[in-house]
């Protein structure tokens, strides 16, 4: 139990307290989360004034009145996270949805750091220009390459079940960080007056039964019969349909209210759209930590062994009952095919 006279428990206080539960823990994960939190607070500052500041909205490559290169918000977020993690003493390297290859840090501290971080710096970026919620998703693995040398691509290409921690920051009507370790999942709301993420959603649970489904139903004509059958079931039961088009926002609602989020394969995208390493694995880890489940339709997401850094996979994730109902429709379709 953390004791606090102010009742506010900051992310830092919380992670230090968690670390103390494990005598062998070194606190490196806590300090990594603090660095990610710092980067996200800076990203949040820019997101808040996105419409006001020249160069934040619009296309990369243009120049502003000072002749400086304008930066799109997702590129800004990517560079910021890389720079902050490069200066962190606990990160050996990063991989980002925005970059073709991994970035391995070669300074003396980083060579001996045991963690690598993968992130989608600004997920749902097509929503930036219309002021809908967007987010940053992150995933943390312990490296498998030996300490004392640069990390390798293999450190990043681990199966999701090896994750040490994963989370997201949602830039919504309030700004929140939700992160999970192997033992718990908790949410922290940014208290703007002190600039700290404070514990607001302890021990989050995804309801076992949900009645909200979240999918881009405009792709109906491209879906398999199994996916259509599942969506028909949802409509027959008059479930609510909610789709923001920003995975972080759609998953945040799914964790808070229960339901299912799906981005299935379709005739145009046979592997779906979302990336295994930057989106599906961290969200699957969060969903499972909250008691939910996540599958490609044939396999548990966290069991997949990645075959490429930017691999895409179909995903069905959220409340167990709904994910199982989707699986039943997909299996029936496969059996009759
Ligand atoms: P992004 O990483 O380029 O922003 O794309 C990912 C987003 C997800 O946040 C969201 O679930 C999905 O793409 C929306 O795709 P669509 O517009 O096809 O429904
Ligand atoms: Mg994304």
CATH class of the largest domain: Alpha Beta
- Total of DSSP H or I helical runs spanning 4+ residues: 9
The largest sheet is: 8 strands, mixed
Spatial shape: globular
Bound molecules: 2,5-anhydro-1,6-di-O-phosphono-D-mannitol, magnesium ion
Report the average pLDDT across residues. 91
Q: What is the name of the CATH superfamily of the largest domain? A: Fructose-1,6-Bisphosphatase, subunit A, domain 1
In terms of per-residue confidence, which ranges show pLDDT below 50 for 5 or more consecutive residues?
62-70
Considering DSSP H and I runs of 4 or more, what fraction of the residues is helical?
25-40%
Return the string of H and E elements. HHHEEHEEHEEEEEHEHEHEEH
Strand percentage lies at 15-25%
Compute the number of structural domains: 2
According to DSSP, the number of beta strands is 13
What is the level-2 CATH architecture name of the largest domain?
2-Layer Sandwich
